[in-house]
């Protein structure tokens, strides 16, 4: 009967997985795009750094379920709107990544920055062509943490009835069936492994010099 | 009824289901789980950090647990265990077990990383001054480990408080009740009020921990944590800074 249930609901599991992937990946990407300027700003000044890092730390403290419930007040959305989940997870992703990016940029060797300046790079060119690429391994590491936590946090939205893999948990609980719950957990784990490997692959592709350093 | 009216309603502040009672239950479940997790993870972490055995296991478990959906785990454990327990503890017991499972890895990795990350210079200096190994552990490595240990405990607390909210779904008391019951009766005011209470409790605990860190951590250790302050040429080229921000291992 175990396999029967999965077989009968394969289409639905696929659909929920697709929703889940979208709800985890979109906020991670948005979070990265917004965290880069913020992190850069924080890395520039020892006065702003504690403010930005402290502030994002406090944001990260708010439990996800509370944020899902409160965001409709701020955004004017309905409680069932997936946009609430996207915004909440974007906030978490920013909070997580801002620190990684600020620390990553701050740890770019001083000599490298000076060499780039001496070669005539303008500040923004230097950021884009030198500092960010050097910080890519660190940012990639943070991104992996962010995307994997997002996959886990998205399931909380099932408490409100927003469809994704967490819906299998509530369904299983109300039907007193363990199979959907296990299927949901397994799919979540598979999804996070896939996304983790993907981010890792992109990080490696963007930093060919790292591979050389490792094999040499 | 606005959210403010809900909070001002005297009925919310007295009786068996009042706000103070629910906050009390929330803190009771969270505190119990945290104490059990500390009792398991701290001795284990000190042992692993001191001997260096089983480090890879710690890292692996910590990573795997981040991916595990806590809500799914909670529902699964409660469904598997609850039918075998007849008493009122049928839901509380399994929930505490899950909370401990979630809280132990961050404390464990914080303890291990803290003990191993103790400044080798300080450890060497202590050895040169004639400290025995247990003395080095107790007087040098443990104080040096405090910042990472406390941030591990802070992460664990955050995780517990957040998951204890979700536990209302499996009919536990606590602040999650407002959110779950509000959802069931389409009472958004109640849900929002519950969400505010959860957020306030979480923020209050976070600030309390930050205060505690400031109070107990040696001032010589805190400055070094801001990478921006040690930017000047101390960072060697090619060294990758810690990948994960909250569980940074030196």
Automatic annotation (TrEMBL), chain B:
Record bears the keyword Protein transport: no
Membrane topology: Multi-pass membrane protein
Annotated transmembrane regions: 27-50, 56-82, 89-108, 156-180, 192-212
UniProt GO cellular component terms: plasma membrane
Stored InterPro entries: ABC_transp_perm/SBD, MetI-like, MetI-like_sf
A Pfam family this chain is assigned to: BPD_transp_1
UniProt keyword Transmembrane helix present: yes
Alphabetical UniProt keywords: Membrane, Transmembrane, Transmembrane helix, Transport
A single GO BP: transmembrane transport
Domain ABC transmembrane type-1: 23-209
Subcellular location: Cell membrane; Membrane
Family: Belongs to the binding-protein-dependent transport system permease family.
PANTHER family referenced in this protein's UniProt entry, alphabetically: GLYCINE BETAINE/L-PROLINE TRANSPORT SYSTEM PERMEASE PROTEIN PROW (PTHR30177), POSSIBLE OSMOPROTECTANT (GLYCINE BETAINE_CARNITINE_CHOLINE_L-PROLINE) TRANSPORT INTEGRAL MEMBRANE PROTEIN ABC TRANSPORTER PROZ (PTHR30177:SF33)
Name of the featured protein: ABC transporter permease
Organism encoding this protein: Antribacter soli
Highest classification ranks of the organism: Bacteria, Bacillati, Actinomycetota, Actinomycetes, Micrococcales
């Amino acid at each position: 009967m175990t396999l029967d249930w999965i077989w009968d609901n394969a289409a639905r599991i696929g659909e929920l997985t697709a929703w889940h992937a979208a709800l985890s990946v979109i906020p991670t990407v948005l979070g990265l795009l917004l965290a880069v300027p913020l992190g850069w700003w924080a890395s520039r000044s020892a006065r702003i750094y504690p403010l930005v890092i402290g502030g994002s730390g406090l944001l990260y403290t708010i439990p996800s379920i509370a944020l899902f419930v409160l965001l409709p007040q701020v955004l004017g959305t309905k409680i069932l709107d997936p946009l609430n989940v996207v915004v909440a997870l974007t906030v978490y992703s920013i909070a997580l990544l801002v620190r990684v990016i600020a620390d990553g940029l701050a740890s770019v060797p001083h000599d490298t920055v000076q060499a780039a300046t001496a070669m005539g790079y303008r500040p923004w060119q230097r950021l884009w062509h030198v500092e960010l690429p050097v910080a890519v391994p660190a940012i990639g590491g943070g991104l992996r943490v962010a995307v994997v936590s997002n996959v886990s946090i998205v399931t909380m939205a099932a408490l409100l009835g927003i469809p994704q893999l967490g819906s299998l948990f509530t369904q299983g609980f109300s039907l007193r069936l363990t199979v959907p719950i296990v299927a949901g957990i397994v799919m979540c784990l598979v999804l996070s492994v896939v996304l983790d490997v993907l981010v890792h692959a992109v990080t490696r592709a963007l930093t060919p010099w790292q591979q050389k350093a490792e094999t040499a | 009824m606005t959210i403010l009216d809900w909070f001002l309603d005297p009925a919310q502040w007295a009786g068996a289901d009042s706000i103070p009672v629910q906050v009390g239950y929330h803190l009771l479940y969270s505190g119990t789980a945290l104490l059990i997790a500390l009792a398991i993870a701290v001795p284990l972490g000190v042992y692993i950090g001191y001997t260096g055995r089983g480090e890879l296991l710690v890292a692996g478990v910590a990573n795997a647990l981040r991916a595990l959906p806590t809500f799914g785990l909670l529902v699964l454990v409660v469904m598997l265990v609850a039918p075998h327990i007849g008493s009122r503890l049928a839901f509380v017991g399994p929930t505490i077990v899950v909370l401990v499972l979630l809280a132990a890895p961050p404390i464990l990795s914080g303890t291990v990383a803290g003990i191993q990350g103790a400044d080798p210079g300080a450890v060497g200096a202590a050895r040169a001054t004639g400290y025995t190994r247990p003395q080095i552990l107790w007087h040098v490595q443990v104080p040096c480990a405090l910042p990472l240990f406390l941030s591990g405990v802070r992460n664990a607390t955050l995780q517990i408080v957040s998951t204890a909210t979700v536990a209302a779904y499996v009919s536990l008391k606590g602040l999650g009740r407002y959110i779950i019951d509000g959802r069931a009766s389409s009472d958004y005011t109640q849900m929002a009020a519950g969400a505010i209470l959860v957020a306030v409790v979480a923020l209050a605990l976070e600030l309390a921990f930050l205060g505690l860190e400031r109070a107990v951590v040696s001032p010589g250790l805190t400055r070094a944590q801001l990478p921006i302050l040690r930017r000047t040429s101390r960072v060697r080229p090619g060294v990758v800074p810690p990948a994960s921000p909250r569980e940074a291992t030196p």
